[in-house]
Design a protein that fits this description.
- It is a single chain.
- Helix content is about 40%, strand content about 20%.
- By secondary structure, the protein is α/β, with parallel strands linked by helices.
- Helix 6 links the parallel strand 5 and strand 6.
- The protein is globular and about 55 Å long.
- Helix 10 packs across helix 12.
- Bound molecules: glutamic acid.
- The site of glutamic acid has 15 residues, from helix 6 and strand 7.
């Protein structure tokens, strides 16, 4: 009898240890620059999780980062548990293309899709940059290393036949530095792949230097869509940006933001987060205007890495798969 009691006690202790390993006390979501959309969206997820913190038994915090590419690498090294990542970069990382050529990130896992983002190019009206090819010879901020916009800028410039080293003066600043530089006449244009409406874009177009959105010709977008299944034709809605020179929505292309994780993150953590957001989708949608378009169905579209088993378990229970 004594032995049985001892064995039971050991099993309980062991179960406790295994459980503690599997479920961290602190979960980190990697986002983007403080002034982007990723950061407040990550904040919305973490605030919803923390309201139920007692039940989940872990605390969720948000980290401002360089963006998509950085988040994928930080997920793979275990520095963060969740990361917001553009769908095109999710695909490239999992398959081993582009920045990850020959090194597929096989532990990358998808959780759900978020808001659509648009490749947004803002230029000084005094530089007369109406379309992508007008960027030739100009000083252009293509975005900080680690960001999604830098990756999109390089691909688009290549399709437009502009050499990033020879064809223009490329800078690598964060969006919030870029807006100051554009108004200070230190750069002529900048790239930003971001959800709309965006507060930073709203503020910069209201500044004293007149600005316009730069059109991406359909022929370039079609070529990019041919290369990449995750791009869609999209246009930048000018109604959100009083003061901008454009009178009509500007043609460009879009990609979804997605929430990713790693195969190493515990199923119960991913399950808890997925369930919390899907079961309270109305609340989540109300936390940022870019999230208003989300539906349970479109949140499962645009994912190319395998679903994390914790997310999959919830989608099966909820009849979404
Ligand atoms: N799409 C950008 C990136 O992947 C981030 C945009 C944002 O911060 O909202 O780096």
């Amino acid at each position: 009898m004594k032995r049985l009691f001892f064995l039971c006690a050991c099993l309980i202790l062991l179960a406790g240890t295994v459980d503690a390993q599997a479920a961290p006390k602190h979960v980190v979501i990697g986002t983007g620059a403080l002034t982007g959309v990723y950061y407040p969206v990550g904040g919305a997820i973490s605030s919803m999780m923390n309201k139920q913190r007692k039940q989940h038994r872990f605390r969720t915090t948000v980290e401002s980062t360089d963006g998509s590419l950085f988040n994928i690498n930080a997920l793979m090294s275990g520095d963060i548990d969740f990361g917001i990542v553009q769908a095109d970069l999710q695909h490239q990382a999992y398959k081993g293309f582009n920045h990850w050529a020959g090194a597929p990130q096989s532990k990358l896992r998808a959780v759900f899709a978020l808001h659509p983002e648009i490749v947004t190019i803002l230029a000084a009206a005094d530089k007369n940059i109406k379309t992508v090819t007008d960027l030739k010879g100009k000083t252009v901020n293509i975005g900080q290393p680690g960001s999604g916009q830098r990756s999109n800028a390089m691909a688009l410039l290549e399709v437009a036949g502009i050499d990033v080293d020879e064809g223009l003066e490329a800078e690598g600043f964060e969006p919030d530095e870029a807006v100051v530089m554009l108004q200070d006449k230190r750069i002529d244009a900048y790239f930003y792949t971001v959800g709309h409406p965006n507060e930073l874009v709203r503020k910069v177009v209201a500044g004293s230097r007149a600005l316009n959105f730069v059109a991406v010709p359909d022929e370039f977008t079609i070529e990019l869509i041919r290369q990449h299944p995750f791009y869609v034709l999209a246009s930048i809605p000018v109604k959100h940006y009083p003061g901008v020179e454009n009178k009509k929505n500007t043609p460009s292309y879009g990609v979804k933001a997605t929430l990713c994780t790693s195969a190493d993150v515990a199923d119960k953590v991913v399950y808890a987060l997925t369930k919390e957001i899907f079961a309270n989708l109305e609340t989540f949608r109300s936390l940022h205007p870019a999230l208003e378009v989300l539906t349970r169905e479109n949140m499962l579209e645009g994912l190319s890495a395998p679903l994390h088993p914790g997310a999959e378990q919830y989608y099966r229970e909820a009849g979404l798969l």
